Backbone:
């Protein structure tokens, strides 16, 4: 029986496709988490000089 040689071009294309797919899915997950995890409004100093606390650069509340 003759053994067939592996098609290295096809194998490399499949590996490259899997790597690209993993990167795309990971980036999509990061975007989804960033959009879904918006925190609720919390009390904070609104003007300059209101105590020693940090204040938001631009408040969305």
Residues:
């Amino acid at each position: 029986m003759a053994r067939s040689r592996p098609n290295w071009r096809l194998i490399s294309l499949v590996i490259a496709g899997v790597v690209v797919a993993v990167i795309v899915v990971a980036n999509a997950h990061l975007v989804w988490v960033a959009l879904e995890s918006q925190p609720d409004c919390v009390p904070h100093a609104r003007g300059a000089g209101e105590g020693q606390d940090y204040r938001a650069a631009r408040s969305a509340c």
Observations:
- Residues 45 and 55 are 5 Å apart (CA to CA).
